[in-house]
Design goal:
mainly alpha, 2 strands, about 60% helix
Length: about 190
């Protein structure tokens, strides 16, 4: 049973992690697990973005054309009369009125977002942030009615966000995080 610090009424109660959560999300002994997950997810993102880079319909002279086709397909999956349409009305509205008019800009955002998330995860640099933005992209594709590997990648990205403290242990985070500090730690000044 987890130990709980009890304070007087109205004060914070600290519920300690169970041993499995502590191992997975706080112990560097689990870092090898996250290394495998991180490199797999990173490779998927990097290869997806790299395949689009230089393609005329994504970043070339016809930039935005591929995204326009994708968005129009997603909007077509939205039927306000249907109880369970593949794409909800609010998301189809966002795609139609925000993404579609700026398809060229969003096309570059997609390509470079996929590449940067992939590099960040493979190198283990700002792993939690990279996984978070990868998860945002997965959810965006899911909202647009695209399954593919998105559910799996979203679950793995969510776990990487939870394990951010140790997921980049075998990567650049091992050195970057202590240098950058964390929001809850004050940097100690050396005299």
């Amino acid at each position: 049973m987890a130990k709980v610090e009890r304070n007087s009424y109205g004060k914070e109660i600290i519920v300690h992690d169970n041993p499995v959560s502590r191992f997975l999300f706080s112990s560097s002994r689990s870092a090898w697990i996250w290394l495998i997950v991180r490199v797999y997810v990173g490779y998927e993102w990097l290869s997806a973005g790299w395949g689009k880079l230089g393609e005329s319909a994504w970043t070339g002279d016809k930039a935005g054309a591929a995204l326009t086709g994708f968005v129009k397909g997603a909007i077509a999956k939205s039927d306000p009369a249907a109880e369970h349409a593949d794409v909800t009305g609010w998301y189809a509205n966002f795609l139609e009125h925000t993404v579609l008019p700026h398809a060229k800009v969003f096309s570059y955002i997609v390509v470079w977002g996929e590449i940067l998330v992939g590099i960040g995860l493979i190198l283990g640099l700002l792993t939690g942030i990279a996984a978070f933005f990868g998860g945002i992209m997965n959810v965006s594709y899911l909202f647009a009615g695209t399954l593919s590997t998105n559910p799996l990648l979203f679950v793995l990205a969510t776990w990487l966000v939870l394990a951010w403290k140790v997921a980049g242990w075998y990567g650049l985070d091992r050195w970057a995080l202590p240098l950058l500090g964390t929001p809850w730690e004050r940097r100690r000044r050396s005299s």
